[in-house]
Predict the 3D structure of the following.
Amino acid sequence: MAQRSRWAILAVGTFAQAATSSFLFGIPMLVPALRAEGASLVAASLLVIAPAVGLLPTLIVWGAVADRYGERVVIVSGVGAAAGVLALVPLTSGLVSTALLLGVAGAFGASVNAASGRMVMGWFPVSERGLAMGTRQTAQPLGVALAALLLPSLAHASGPRAALLFPAALCALAAVGVFLVVRDPPRKTRDAASGPVSPYRSSHMLARVHLASALLVVPQFAVATFTLAYLVDVRHWDAPVAGRWIFAFQAVGAAGRVVAGLWSDRVRSRLGPMRQLAAASAMLMVALAIGAWLDAAWIVAVFALAAVVTVADNGLAYVSVAELAGTDWAGRALGLQNTVQNMAAIATAPMLALVIGGGARYGWAFALTAAFPALAIALTPVAGERHPALATG
């Protein structure tokens, strides 16, 4: 395929992922508006995780469908259906009905997670996959950045449920774009009788990468979920103003994922940079804890750094999983990768909300969060990374 065409496919696939990320991970931007309606922090945090709860049981299924039928049909159908479900949210009134619709939208939005990663594997050679997957992984911080920029203002003007018409429109546009631009990569022919051999049978590498990256989701989701709440509750910032700052943090975080991907291509390792980023995440969460305990103004700068560093490892884990799994298993392996990560994400928001409680104990919540990337340092299997393609470049 022409160079321009595969980059166009990557761009449209990234936009589709950003569109779903704007609601999958953008609901924290509605927390102040939800609390203004009378919801507690714990109740609002349960609404925050509702899309991920719906996403969780469907990720591996979508990956298997992509392995069998291709990426284009999976993304178009899933993202288009998510747009339709989100359009129904303004018709609801209670937290339970809103959470149910967000869960269904998350189930459909899961389609793009495994399928768009599989496209990168198909269209880009190993020497460019770090850059390509890093570019694709900018989708999540960009989606959150768009949510931070617009959802607080939309919620202030029309209410938190009506604000979700914005991600609904993004998802509808993404489905059309994928239908018009994306083409499935060519597939290797194989003996249908033999079937693909599971890459999980011969090595524990994939399982360790899954677990390490799940641990690294905890600081990522802690920062994404509670930065706005901290700035509004403790620093007494106006929510739309805080949202604009978070937009800037997330935009830089998106660029950080591209840099991390280039870094991994240059050093011919995905897991070495991933472990170094885990160490940086642990140190930044300790700094957030100290800043919160001291009520220090410099904590805003640490939030900015954490918004960049805690998301940078994600693309490295994805490309490592896809390469270790191979073409026949990439969809399912990426589906499982998303599953374990979202299990961690689902647990993070209510766990930390309970620690924070009504007394704004943010320092203790951030201190607890630091333990998770510290564990990921030991679990990341750098010594076992002997990928032949990476060794030869």
